[in-house]
Amino acid sequence: MGLIDAARQGDLDAFNRLVLAYQDLVYTQAYRMMGDTEAAEDAAQEAFISAYHHLNSYRGGSFRGWLLRIVTNVCYDELRRRKRRPTIPLEPLDAEDEEVESPGWLADMAELPEESAIRAELRRAIQRCLDELPAEFKAMVVLVDIQGLDYQEAAQAARAPVGTVKSRLARARMRLRDCLLAVWELLPSTYRLKNEGYE
Amino acid sequence: MKKRLRDRDWQDLSAYLDGELSSRERARLEERLASREDLRTALEELRRVRVILRSQPRLRAPRNFTLGPAFASQRVRRQPSRSLSPVFGLVSALASVLFILVVVGESIFGVARPAMAPLQTEIQAKSAQVEMAASPTEVSLQQAQEFTAEQEAAPEMLDQSSQAEVTSQAEAEVFGTLEAPLAGAMEYPAPMAREYDTGAYPPPAAPSPPALAAQAAQQPTPEPTQTASPTSEAIAAAQRAPEQPAMTSETGIVQPRPSFWNTWRIVQFGLLLLAILSGVLAFTWRRKRQ
């Protein structure tokens, strides 16, 4: 909280330390919302600039929830501007209707060099499924299931009541069933085994 | 065959996975899960979706998003407006309180018709002075002037209809009229005052208060004992004197029925409008800043 107070007093260094602490969180949200790295970088940068200018509107509570609200709103605005354009282009198909690895996909893989091919494929598959959702549902499932927020924090970030969080999250998961269950086998076996048999 | 679940079922299952159901809701759902396979299947599907999504690590930012030195001069915006929302709220609260006070005050004073009684008593006392006075003309003129001053001094105590009533009664006291109308003071004809006849006019009409009527009837009695010249002078003076109370009565008569839009109403309306506008502005400003 000391960094936040200092930043509110005009200490740019204090604010930049906050940026370093939260930029992975903000970038992840932006990437999952926008679906591509370039748009995610732009959205993350815009979100931090907006946060700096509106620090006085932060009134306590979850600072990460407050930051996520800003980046989510930035993404909403951008998605509305691009709503007639697909968020992620589908992979081109060759003559046998097989997917072709495009340079774009390869570049995405290059973004996270430590990733294995399977993890990269899983990430892309999940992102493709997320991109089929309406923006509000996508934001909710990313906030709760990927960012790890609880319902209260997600309500703050989405500026919606907890009941709306509950409803949107359930509907998002319901829609993701068929798409995501297809990649269940891509999960590491140890991961699957660890999470089996909950019923 | 898969039974189609309701949206509420999916919502409960999803919240159940996240531990966001109350203990009562949880118990009820577990009871249903025990008896319905379709619910158990849906729950398992949602659980796998959740597992897949949560398997994803947080991505690493490809670069730092720190702000450059140029931003040090671009300080936080909207700081002045921070104080406006509470100001509007305070203005709204004060206007509301004042509005309530004005309404209550008007109700109290509006119900205060008995406030006429002290005036009537005073008028009776003054009419008694008339009987004892040597010069009826001087008393008449003096009483008319005093009565006019009283009316001007205490307009808030009497509304205009009351003023007209008291005015007409005072005139009956001082000048002795054939009729002393009350609420119908607008009908009080000025020529009646000029028909001041020291000896021959009949007692006042029924609407007059009995005390005032009796005194009006008594009033002319001592006057015939006066000399002839004071009587004629009294007639001339009485013809002149009524001008002031007649003007006053005319002032009361001009507005026979009080207009809805008097000063108090305007103040009330203004305060109400101010309270509503300030409240709306405070609410809108706060939502805008959020």
Polypeptide structure, described:
- The complex is a heterodimer of chains A (199) and B (290).
- With 199 residues, chain A is mainly α.
- Helices cover 68% and strands 0% of the residues of chain A.
- Chain A contains ten helices and no strands.
- Chain A has helices spanning 2-8, 12-34, 37-53, 63-81, 103-111, 117-130, 135-146, 151-158, 162-181, 189-194.
- In chain A, α4 packs antiparallel against α7 (135-146) and α8 (151-158) packs across α9.
- The longest helix of chain A has 23 residues, at 12-34.
- Chain A is globular, with a radius of gyration of 18 Å.
- The relative contact order of chain A is 0.10.
- Mean pLDDT of chain A is 82; it is low at 91-95 and 97-111.
- Chain B has 290 residues and is mainly α.
- Chain B has twelve helices and no strands.
- Chain B has helices at 7-17, 23-35, 37-54, 84-110, 116-132, 136-153, 160-175, 190-194, 210-218, 228-240, 243-254, 263-289.
- The longest helix of chain B is centred in the middle third of the chain and has 27 residues, at 84-110.
- Chain B is flat, with a radius of gyration of 41 Å.
- Chain B starts with 6 loop residues before the first helix and ends with a helix.
- The chains are: A mainly alpha (199), B mainly alpha (290).
